[in-house]
Specification:
CATH class: Mainly Alpha
Structural class: mainly alpha
Largest sheet: 2 strands, antiparallel
Order of helices and strands: HHHHHHHHHEEHHHHHHHHHHHH
Radius of gyration: 23 Å
Strand order of the largest sheet: 1-2
Shape: globular
Number of helices: 21
Oligomer: single chain
CATH superfamily: MFS general substrate transporter like domains
Strand content: under 5%
Length: about 450
Amino acid sequence: MANTSQLNNGIENTAVKKSYLYPIIIIGILFFVFGFVTWLNGTLIPFLQLACELNTSQALLVTFAFYMAYFFLAIPSSYILKLTGFKNGMSLGLFIMALGALVFIPAANAREFSLFLTGLFIQGMGLALLQTASNPYISVLGPIESAAQRISIMGICNKVAGVLSPLILSAIVLKGAQALENQVSSISDQAAKEVLLTELAQRVIFPYAVMAAVLILLAIMIRFSSLPEINTDEDHVDETGNRVASKSSVFQYRNLNLGLICIFLYVGVEVMAGDVIGTYGKSLGMSLDQTKIFTSYTLVSMVIGYIIGIISIPKYIKQEKALMLSALIGIIFTIAAYLTTGYTSIVFIALLGLANALMWPSIFPLAIKGLGKFTKIGSALLIMGIAGGAILPQIYAWLETFLSPQSAFLFSMVPCYFYILYYAISGHQSKSTLSKLTPSLSRKEKIGI
């Protein structure tokens, strides 16, 4: 009888794993799209700085426009998902991203920076909807304890795309970039300079037109796929199988409230390490031909971090412990980047990708754990936190006006990593968990303490 029961359990577990496989593949494709589009910003910053004749602060508005879209559209996205469901919401998000990519065509022809920012904001709108749908989807598509492992798999899809996208785009739009920058600076005739810069700006038309076509095709495929819907509107079930009634407000969940700040700061440090690394290298005197691919270095180290997460979580280490170690590594590597110079400093910033890799996979499931019917709105609030990618680079640009680039980087990053460390140690715990860890005064009085 025992052998028969074990056999039945094994068959059931295999069937469950197979039922997860198809949606995981679909969401993996979406995360690849997220990464490809998101990490183009690292190339767009120096490209638009040259094509539109911008200073550093203006060029970093690329990340500001892109990531602020998450702040404004995340909450509306949760209501859209209630109307459309997860699958149709993902399809709609892809269509919106395609529209944003098409805006790059008139922006390039007019060499108008504000139009480029509009296209980026629209792309961010579509991504806000996609992220609000896909992150809780993959988190609850199995045991919450292994959610970090599943999100790590998604992270590999995201960051492999992120490695490829700056390499592909820079090869197209920044070919011979340093020579072109020297040529532009040496031209005294304004009309000739305008012609040269307009030709440069138009280099983005072909890749973004192709991107729009691919996004539309994916939107249609997702719309007519058999991707299953999931129900996140029920009460939470705890580890013992007992149903836990949801609270009256989403803001009554301590792990979510503190998680909002944690996500905000985490995305900030991720964008600094991935998108700002090129600007940082240029400020240290490196050429544009060198700095244009620095983003890929950071993302390679993130892929390595995700592989470590897939192997180790939750088999060898819990996701909250992984987050704690990641924060400590982030602090160490940031200080090392400050204390070194040249390529050594760049290497330590690229290695921050290793420190950052397991942060999102750990923070997101810890923050939505136990939310029950508030999962959609809680996820939307967390997606709003992606606006950290808009704010922290601007803080860095401001600090750089009166500090060295290395000092500005240090003071931008280290406080963020210390907060993430706090969240990993105790900030992610709910009030009920903390009360279990800390005996009440009345109990102490009863036992005569």
